[in-house]
Amino acid sequence: MTTMSHQLSSSTLGDTLDVATSTKGLIEHPHRIKPSEAGAALLSLSRDLSSLSKRGSVKIAEVQAIAERTWRANVAFEQRLAQLAREKQQLEHMVDTVWKKFDEVIMPLWKFDDSMIPIYEELSTIFTALEALRHDTTLSADARGINLRQLQDRLHAVENLQTDGKFVPGGWSKYGGRIPSGQAMCVNLMNRCYKLVEKIAEMESIVDPSLAKINDKLEDIISNLCALRDAAQAGHPIDPIEVHMYQEQIQAIDNLRVDGKFVGATGDVPEGQAALHELLDWAFDLVHEICVALEEQENGKGGKGDADVQPTVLSALTERVGDVQQSLISYAASASRGITAVSQPTFTLMYDTIGEGMSLLKDTVTHPGQTAYAAASKLRSLVSSSLGYVNRVSAQMEPVDESLQGVHSNLFVIRRTLRQMRDKRNELYINAKTGEGIEASIAQKELRAFNRAFDEQLTEISRFLSTVEAARVDGNFVNARGEVPSGQTALKALLEECYVLSMELLNDACV
């Protein structure tokens, strides 16, 4: 948007402003756009541009009017960004102030057992060091990263002192053992430390300059897809041609990879692979969520069949999983930098929320009439992408033990295959939506042929997943020696993601 507005000369804008007032074509002269309305204005502008593009023949007056709208929207966009930046700084300052005042208010009420004092002092020292690291502008990126990891190791060491989510002395038993006072203060301070870790991690870019264009392009695509997704989920009509355009751009970027990696001009593998793969997966997930929303619009809010589950219960759970997903996206980005930016208790609560969604989805398989099809599809897409982020964050927090690498590799290949099948089906679905006449008929036949061709492969994958599930002991993955090694959460999330992807692909519809 900024580039386009900069290309408009002052004389062109002057001519545009004169002509737009008398334009009575497709698009009428707009009023000044408020910064708070920038998102809606850009979405409306995008729809009108798509309409003009499909019509083919465009009048000069319409072009001039659309140019003025573009300029006005760009001004509102820049103003809104500036507002958000200021609001973010103000909110961060207010949060810090609230915590400081909170500490002052409750200080007279502090009741710390002797065993808790060293823990709180260590957390206070870590917090102070993180604050200093955050504001130190003299350090290089490498030095800041080293210092951050050292502080993070100390933070993990404190967190590992917990038993069943509580800081307790050695030899403590949950059967009759007294929980030392001071738990809330230590847990709150620990969470504040993790938030600082995340902020510091966001300060540094780990993408090599040679991959910066790909990174910027993916971020631009994701921003636009998020706007389309939000509009579609709010019930607003969106043009499938726009989705098709971004889908082709994502696929073009995906095709740049050589053996799964983005390579430089000399064939080298630059830094930032994990970050780009995160963005690429996110972009494909957004396309899928838009496809789900489009189908929901087609079938109506009720979807297929009757719904026995209360809509408020389902919508509330879907909203909660959506909130968890947004947080996990940020944590996964930090994990790609080798940094864990979430505490174990918080992460466990997030995983539990996703688990609730998973349980409901399993019920929809065994009892198809229990909930509306379209609503379940939306929850399923959120759970699927959330589990992918859980896998990546947990792998950073607790790497998969070498003795379980075989299981992990097999599940990872299946996940990749299922995602490729899902993305291909989405592509065929969008093609069927955007085609006209004979083209639409051909695209629909290709979609039906795709479903038939992959039925056998999906059945084989489902059998393998059942075999992996049956091999677990008390819900855990064990090695050849019967041990329960590290990496359980990552493997469980990977297996569950494969199950959800299979659910999506085994449905009669595209999604």
Summary tags:
single chain; 511 residues; two-stranded antiparallel ribbon; 16 helices; disordered N terminus
SSE string, helices as H and strands as E: HHHHHHEEHHHHHHHHHH
Helix content: over 70%
- Count of alpha and pi helical runs: 16
* Overall form: globular
Rg (CA only): 26 Å
Sheet-strand content, in percent, reads under 5%
N- to C-terminal separation?
A: 32 Å
Main beta sheet: strand number and arrangement? 2 strands, antiparallel
Regions with little confidence, pLDDT below 50 for 5+ residues: 1-30, 301-308, 367-371
Spatial strand order of the main sheet: 1-2
Helix vs. strand class: mainly alpha
Mean pLDDT: 79
Number of strands: 2
Provide structural commentary.
The chain has 511 residues and is an all-alpha fold. The protein contains 16 helices and 2 strands. It has helices at 2-7, 10-20, 38-55, 60-106, 117-135, 141-159, 183-202, 212-233, 240-254, 273-299, 311-335, 344-366, 373-397, 405-434, 438-470, 488-506; strands spanning 162-163, 166-167. The protein has a two-stranded antiparallel sheet. Strand 1 (162-163) and strand 2 form a beta hairpin. It starts with a helix and ends in a 5-residue tail after the last helix.
Concise structural overview:
This protein has 511 residues and is mostly helical. The protein has helices at residues 2-7, 10-20, 38-55, 60-106, 117-135, 141-159, 183-202, 212-233, 240-254, 273-299, 311-335, 344-366, 373-397, 405-434, 438-470, 488-506; strands at 162-163, 166-167.
